[in-house]
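Hi support team,

I'm filing this because I wasn't sure whether my run with flavin-adenine dinucleotide finished correctly. The job status page said complete, but I'd like someone to confirm that the output block is well-formed before I use it downstream. Pasting the exact inputs I used:
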Amino acid sequence: MSSLIRRDPRIERIARNRLHPLHQSLVGGSTEQRGPTGLLRKDPRAGYFMGPNGLKRKDRTGNNAPGAARLQRGASGATASEPLLPLHKVESPAHFIVCVLDMVGGRLTSHDKDVLGQAHLLAKSASSEAAVVAVVFGDHREEGFDKAGVDRLIHFNGDDTLSYQGYCPELKLAALQSVESALSPLYWLFPDSIHGGTDLGCRLSARIGERPANHAWQVDKDNTVCRGGSDRIDIRRNTPRLILLAEECAMPIDETRHEVLSLEIELITQAESRIQDLGAVDVDPSQIPLAEAEFILSAGNGVRDWDQFHEVATSLGATEGASRVAVDDGFMPRFRQVGATGTWVTARVYIAVGISGAIQHLQGIGQCEKVVAINTDPGCDMVKRADLTVIGRSQDILGELLQLYKARQTGSSTLSQTKEPDSVSNQEKQDKEARCVA
Ligand SMILES: Cc1cc2nc3c(=O)[nH]c(=O)nc-3n(C[C@H](O)[C@H](O)[C@H](O)COP(=O)(O)OP(=O)(O)OC[C@H]3O[C@@H](n4cnc5c(N)ncnc54)[C@H](O)[C@@H]3O)c2cc1C
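And here is everything the job wrote out:
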């Protein structure tokens, strides 16, 4: 195996192109990240290393950036392995700080990670050793509990008779009551969120008769500062035992690994659920605020047929967005503008139709998971940013999309005529499938 340093022109190209989606993972180095609310969060630890005499030194070489090893890999092609973080152990905890996590989609959210970060701050200030306990309900797909700071994990997975899937606050509350009597936690922490944290936290507070701190964003063992008055005023109070935490209340854990030891809790009360969860309902995508939309079809100066654009958005079930030029020209309302002076969006899929990718627009879509560009110019910045690009005239591409959607719909209605009994569910399934394929 040769130790010669080999150059990978593709990786070097990505490292030079700051608009490429993999750019950050290669060069690292950025100490600033934009949080979900648009606030810049600075990581004071990034860019430093511990010198031989224990002093913190600034790293000016760039060799410790996450992607540096990949830029210089040898003939074996092996990438440098991820550095092993030190293991934080809590041998015999005297206290427990319990975090009830949202786990949206079965994974830790950034809000959950902030809550775990806050739990460790409180654990450090506790009089004796404290363990951070995460409570998770139902199935999950998370593999990073150790790096997020979970010392102990309580997983209520249910069984044939008891299911924690969907909306079942009474069952979850009964489980939390069992945790309360088994561990008598030093603190109960919940994300103050619409994903269940606020609801469950308020229910537990009423059940155990303790007043919670809501929307807390600065917490230490003595005082808690909460946002109030529509986020205009701060309310300072003594830190209670039950805290509903705002987003970005603390930095997530990133310097240690944790044990994630399983804790078994026996249910002391069997709650009967009087709420029936009928599942998620379809909403009108045009009513979803841009900042919360998961799927956005966005129009720029390259859109020629506006009726066609609106029809496609309705068919695909997408929320409409726009570039500033489309708004200034009067084709779209001001509240649809995406970008630095519009809305910062966090969609899972963002389709940019005829948008060049000016820096002000790209700033607004920095948090989007997948970007699709439809454009006539293969060299434009939006194409560089995109994960998938379709080069062509917007009117042609959108026309094709519509045809595909209609063909699927016709196919599904033919199917529904032949299969009478579950025609409704089939139709719905086909519609959804057509949207996904489109
Ligand atoms: C202070 C300031 C703040 C700003 N804030 C924002 C902001 O928040 N949001 C924002 O969006 N902009 C903002 N802008 C404006 C920004 O700089 C750009 O001018 C704007 O984003 C360009 O919009 P566009 O991409 O739709 O138009 P253009 O730049 O004109 O690009 C049109 C694109 O469409 C393509 N095209 C042309 N014809 C077709 C076709 N038939 N089919 C497919 N593609 C086609 C072209 O190749 C081109 O890439 C701001 C500017 C300033 C100075």
